[in-house]
Write a structure and sequence with these properties.
Blueprint (H helix, E strand, L loop, with lengths): L7 E3 H11 L6 H7 L13 E3 H15 L4 H5 L9 H8 L4 H11 L7 E8 L2 E8 L7 H19 L9 E3 L7 H11 L2 E3 L6 E4 L13 H21 L2 H12 L7 H7 L4 H10 L4 H19 L4 H7 L5 H12 L3 H8 L3
Parallel strand pairs: 5-6
Antiparallel strand pairs: 1-2, 3-4, 4-7, 5-7
Length: 343
């Protein structure tokens, strides 16, 4: 598998979406053939694909199924194997808290689709997921898949079929009443749209519920295997993917400076610049890519004001943002939002 700017992903995660697509009359083999992907994905003889291949297939499935709830419904098909070896590690944890705190460390085994962050939400905990892909059409579907997969897997592990988060936050506009009712029914709780993050909000005491089959000895063995896999993946991970991940994380607070990115990657600015040049790109190019992707995501999935988007992306003037966005897409921000926002 060649290096890819979106990293790689386990085919186990991909198979979860393919199983969901069968409900829409789409055969897994046909979906793979249509996207020039090998049939060996189905029997796990091929264990990983590039992030670009993963994203392309999910977009094809979203378009083919033509259901705004495809991502949400695909979460119903989660199995321990959907998370590769990490799923079996979670099964052998003593509590949800232990499993949660392992997730940011080992989730890249599942793939580079996004990152999990644990944040305080008043007296509760927000289990947040930030998608790192750049197709704004599939991002909401992937967020729904991840959050509902977590909910379903937690219900199974804790033997609580009616278990539910305190509430769910989603960074997008509120849908129709019919679609909203489906979200509420599946999660079993209130849904807050137009939120500042996409996350499950859970009570701290819920995290202490014992899981159904903890096995510390097996967990230790699986963790050793996972560490070996992580080392191998880290060696293969491109400097481009590492910088993109850091830029996305830092951009939540301010426009990242090169020295901050270098510091986060434990290298000097000169080393960072040299490695990016060797990879055929530069820091400013990657920063512009992330700004463009983020702008498109906000314009097409939220109603955040254009002047606020400009400020959040580090533009000192709104007209500067307008000029840059038009150079990226050929359209002014408002025009792009009108053309590409899905009703």
């Amino acid at each position: 598998m060649t290096e890819d700017r979106l990293g790689s992903a386990s085919t186990a995660a991909l198979r979860q979406y393919l199983r969901a697509a069968q409900d829409y009359g789409i055969e897994a083999e046909d979906a793979l053939v249509q996207n020039d992907l090998p049939i060996g994905i189905l029997d796990n003889s091929i264990s990983r694909v590039t992030g670009t291949e993963f994203q392309r297939l999910i977009r094809w499935l979203v378009d083919a199924c033509n259901d705004p709830l495809f991502g949400l419904k695909s979460g119903s098909y989660v199995q321990p194997g959907s998370y590769s070896i990490f799923g079996y590690m979670i099964m052998n944890c003593r509590s949800a808290r232990e499993a949660l705190h392992m997730t940011p460390m080992y989730e890249s085994i599942v793939g580079d689709m996004g990152v999990t962050k644990l944040e305080k939400a008043g007296s509760r905990l927000a289990v947040r997921w930030v998608c790192q892909y750049d197709d704004p059409i599939i991002i909401p579907h992937m967020i729904d898949n991840v959050l509902f997969s977590w909910t379903q897997f937690a219900r199974y592990l804790a033997d609580l079929p009616d278990g539910k988060p305190y509430f769910v936050q989603l960074e997008r506009d509120e849908p129709s009443n019919e679609v909203l009712a489906t979200y509420q029914e599946m999660f079993g709780c209130d849904i807050e749209f137009n939120a500042k993050r996409s996350a499950l909000i859970v009570d701290e005491e819920v995290l202490e519920i014992p899981l159904r089959q903890p096995d510390p000895g097996l967990l230790q063995s699986l963790t050793q295997q996972a560490e070996s896999m992580m080392d191998e993946l880290k060696q293969k991970k491109t400097i481009i993917l590492q910088v993109r991940a850091v830029l996305r994380r830092l951009m939540e607070h301010e426009l990242p400076r090169k020295e901050k990115v270098a510091e986060a990657l434990d290298m000097t600015e000169r080393t960072l610049q040299r490695r990016l040049q060797e990879a055929g790109t530069g820091y400013q190019q990657l920063l512009d890519d992330i700004r463009r992707e983020t702008a498109i995501e906000w314009l097409t999935t939220t109603q955040v004001a254009i002047n606020e988007i400009a400020i959040n992306l580090g533009f000192s003037e709104v007209r500067s943002f307008h000029r840059r966005f038009k150079s990226w897409t050929g359209h002014a921000p408002g025009e792009y939002r009108t053309l590409h926002t899905k009703n």
